[in-house]
Amino acid sequence: MLPTPPVVADGIALFLDMDGVLAPMAPTPDAVAPTARRTAALKAVEARLAGRVAIVSGRTIAEIDRISDHALVSGSGVHGLERRLKDGSIERKTPDAGVAHALDAFEEFAADRPGVIVEDKGVSVGLHYRQAPDEAGAAKGLAAELQAETGLTLQPGHMVLELKTPGADKGTAVTAFMQEAPFKGAVPVMLGDDLTDEYGFEAAAALGGYGVLVGPKRETAARYRLDDVDAVLTWLEAVAKA
């Protein structure tokens, strides 16, 4: 059984996933909205940690900004394929040519399947079937076929399959931030709920830090666990006051 993470602020750097960690899971990606509590907690903990906080999400940076109400500067989107530095500049991988092909195939698949949603992120494309769980098998089969055809990286998530430009993940994003001010020299702490966050947990551990799993117990590289989004926000509020 994993213990709850310690409430410490001095010397740590925080890396936070969005969906399932800072925001509850929703039926569709655009159904998640900003909340006053989340925005206040992020601003408070960033001030306490002297800027050593970044959201590391599968969402685009634009979506991170929308949901967090522009609370933070540092952030990484689309599983490490986008990264905004502390000075506000953005590094973005060039989209693989296979992404356009995958987008066309996903849109054709979703056209006659109510509840299946296609999300175009430019450097990747996601196929959401949360509202059509019976389509899981067919969706997984199509994604695997497209991955073999295009060489894109297949990234499964919570009721979503994403085909993305190769070469980055949440772990590479954490590692890159930790080489730069104001993160450099701190102890990295990654909070995540999904399999995609395991890369972040592993990167944090390799750099002397640790991961915090959010949600039900499962096999994980994380050292600690929090129950849900409310527990995360409560913990962040406590860290901000530590």
UniProtKB/TrEMBL annotation:
Pathway note: Glycan biosynthesis; trehalose biosynthesis
Gene3D superfamilies: HAD superfamily/HAD-like, Trehalose-6-phosphate phosphatase related protein, domain 2
Reactions mediated catalytically: alpha,alpha-trehalose 6-phosphate + H2O = alpha,alpha-trehalose + phosphate
GO molecular function, one term: trehalose-phosphatase activity
Biological process (GO), any one: trehalose biosynthetic process
InterPro entries linked to this entry: HAD-like_sf (IPR036412), HAD-SF_hydro_IIB (IPR006379), HAD_sf (IPR023214), OTSB-like (IPR044651), Trehalose_PPase (IPR003337)
Keywords assigned: Hydrolase, Magnesium, Metal-binding
Cofactor names: Mg(2+)
EC number: 3.1.3.12
Pfam families on file: Trehalose_PPase
Superkingdom: Bacteria
Top-level enzyme category: hydrolase
SUPFAM superfamilies: HAD-like
Functional description taken from the UniProt entry: Removes the phosphate from trehalose 6-phosphate to produce free trehalose.
Matching PANTHER family: TREHALOSE 6-PHOSPHATE PHOSPHATASE
Stated family: Belongs to the trehalose phosphatase family.
Protein name, as recorded: Trehalose 6-phosphate phosphatase
Gene from which the chain derives: otsB
